[in-house]
Structure formats: C-alpha cells, structure tokens
Amino acid sequence: MFKFRESPKPLIWSYTLILALCLEAGALVFQYLLDYGPCTLCVQIRATLFGAFILAVTGKLFTARSVQLLLAFLLLALMALLLYQSYQVLGIERYWFESSCTLSDPFPSWLPLHLWLPAMFEPWELCGYTPEIIKGITMAEVLIVTATVSFALSVWHLITQLKSN
C-alpha cells in the first residue's frame, strides 16, 4: 500500500489560523459594534482571509509532504493577493489612486459570497476611508504591515518546504 511521507506541522499554519481569525473578528467588531461598514475591497480582503483560514485548517490536518508543498504554494499566492489588496486600500485612502470601488457585486456569479454570507461579505459603503485603530494608525496601515509580514513568512515557508523535499 502506498504511504505518504509525513512532514511536521509547520508553525505557519498556526500563525495563519490565528491571523485570519483575529483580522476577521476585528473587522466584524468594527462593522457591527462600531458601525464602520465595509467596502467592496474590504469584503474581498475578508474572502482572502477566509481562504487563508481554510488553508491553515487543511495544513494542520494533512501532513503529507506533497499536500504541504501544494498548500505552501497556495498560501504564497493568497498572501501575495492580500498584500496587493492591502496596497490598494492604502492607496485609495492616501489618494495615491484616483479610482474608487463601487457597491457592485464584489464576487463572481459562480462564488456569490455576498449572497451566501451577507453578514460577512456584503459591502455597505464606498472605498476611501478606513477607521483609526489606535493613535492615528488606520486599519489600512495595520493591514499593509500585517500583509507584508505574512507574505514574507509564506515565502520563507515555501522555501523550507522546497528544501525538505
């Protein structure tokens, strides 16, 4: 019978799981307790974090090296997307970009998260402003730093997975 080689469960999955849960919870607190509605780009970021959460759970459950390597590639792609989305949010907030997002459907018709889970993925407002977290630091600034660190860690994780195979 064929047996997969197992690899140890990397800490990246715990980090990603905690990161996704904390950022999602924080976004929902700002939305429902502090009444800062999300924009289209914000709910797309939430979807990216939801995907990272699913990857983290999968990474903790399946330890086969081939699965871990595939998940490492997927994590890198998701963290790159998160970094790009974070840069867009910061750019719109700081007026680096002249465009703004609309209230149009934020997801494709084959994955209408805004219809399936509107409490989490329905946009309420236009882009352009993120709330202050603490002492003048905005949500967009926290997100760009977090996304940069997460991207760097996912690059490091992928490199270690490639070296171990």
Would you spell out the secondary-structure blueprint of this structure?
Elements: H1 11-32, H2 40-61, H3 65-93, H4 113-116, H5 118-121, E1 132-134, E2 137-138, H6 139-164
Antiparallel strand pairs: 1-2
How would you sum up this structure, described in words?
This protein has 165 residues and is mainly alpha-helical. The protein has a single domain, classed as DsbB-like (Bromodomain-like). It contains 6 helices and 2 strands. Strands 1-2 form a two-stranded antiparallel sheet. α1 (11-32) runs antiparallel to α2 (40-61), α2 (40-61) packs antiparallel against α3 and α3 (65-93) packs antiparallel against α6. The model is unreliable at 1-6 (pLDDT under 50).
SSE order in H/E notation? HHHHHEEH
Q: Which spans of ≥5 residues are poorly predicted at pLDDT below 50?
A: 1-6
- Main-sheet strand order equals 1-2
The CATH class label is Mainly Alpha
Helix content: 55-70%
Mean pLDDT: 82
The CATH architecture assignment turns out to be: Up-down Bundle
Instruction: Briefly note the structural class of the backbone.
Output: mainly alpha
Summary keywords:
165 residues; Bromodomain-like; two-stranded antiparallel ribbon; mainly alpha
Write a brief caption for the model.
The protein is 65% helix and 3% strand. It is mostly helical.
